[in-house]
């Protein structure tokens, strides 16, 4: 089975370029933006050898995992474009729930306990399953004439999670759902269209924010945010209208965080 767009994405005019191997799907997308290709264009690779994560980290994509990037050219500001990470997180959660409904919720023994959501969204751009990292999202933006070329890269642990990371990670197959990267991608392309229409050039950010907060990891919990050489501690209170993390500190001050390394719960007390 090859990578294919979903019927909604195909009807909406999205295009697809699929590689067997690529260094980085984000790099492939940016190269095409520099050649004047505007998108919307999805780029996938069965194997990615030089994937990029946030904050300059590498992202491993062995065969069986999903590496996909979406190229868009928008009339938007950089802050508006950055909020597409929330759109991507919502779309990815919906796609995983569609192809692997058995892992979307967990119930207790004999189903007697209340079901709870296993999939959550971690600010700014991670998807977690049972608190472990399942997927990461990387946005890269460049000027393109008087508009912006925006690339949204998504890496999902489908077949296996990388070992030796400083945080817990998991994969769909490890959670007992034997879906394929190709099947997840098709569902993702259709889910993206739905949430991108809600976003509506940034005009629908309030609704995207509401939907994202309903699936947020660590909301109301202790949080520690490493910003450069300092650590901000407090409680994850909400997101503001621009998608910034709002931390309520112990002295009652509300601090808006644009970027940083976030730790929740018990990990927040250990972060230094």
From TrEMBL:
One of its GO terms (cellular component) is cytoplasm. Pfam families: BPL_C, BPL_LplA_LipB. Residues 15-200 form the BPL/LPL catalytic domain. Its EC number is 6.3.4.15. The keyword Aminoacyl-tRNA synthetase does not apply. Keywords: ATP-binding, Biotin, Ligase, Nucleotide-binding. NCBIfam families: birA_ligase. This is biotin--[biotin carboxyl-carrier protein] ligase.
């Amino acid at each position: 089975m090859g990578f294919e767009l979903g019927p909604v994405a195909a009807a909406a005019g999205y295009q697809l370029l699929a590689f067997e191997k690529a260094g980085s799907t984000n790099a492939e997308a940016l190269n095409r933006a520099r050649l004047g290709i505007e998108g919307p264009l999805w780029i996938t690779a069965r194997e990615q050898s030089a994937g990029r994560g946030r904050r300059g980290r590498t992202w491993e994509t062995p065969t069986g995992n999903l590496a996909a990037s979406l190229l868009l050219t928008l009339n938007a500001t950089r802050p508006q474009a950055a909020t597409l990470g929330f759109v991507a997180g919502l779309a990815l959660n919906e796609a995983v729930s569609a192809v692997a409904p058995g892992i979307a919720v967990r119930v207790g023994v004999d189903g007697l306990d209340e079901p709870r959501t296993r999939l959550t969204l971690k600010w700014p751009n991670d998807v977690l399953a049972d608190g472990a990292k399942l997927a990461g999202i990387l946005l890269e933006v460049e000027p393109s004439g008087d508009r912006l070329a925006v690339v949204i890269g998504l890496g999902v642990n489908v077949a296996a999670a990388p070992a030796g990371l400083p945080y817990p990670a998991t994969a769909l197959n490890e959670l007992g759902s034997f879906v394929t990267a190709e099947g997840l991608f098709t569902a993702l392309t259709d889910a993206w269209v739905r949430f991108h229409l809600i976003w509506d050039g940034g005009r629908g950010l309030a609704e995207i924010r509401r939907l994202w907060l309903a699936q947020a990891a660590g909301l109301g919990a202790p949080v520690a945010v490493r910003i450069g050489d300092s650590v901000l501690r407090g409680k994850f209170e909400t997101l503001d209208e621009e998608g910034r993390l709002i931390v309520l500190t112990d002295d009652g001050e509300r601090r808006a965080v644009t970027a940083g390394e976030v730790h929740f719960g018990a990990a927040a007390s250990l972060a230094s």
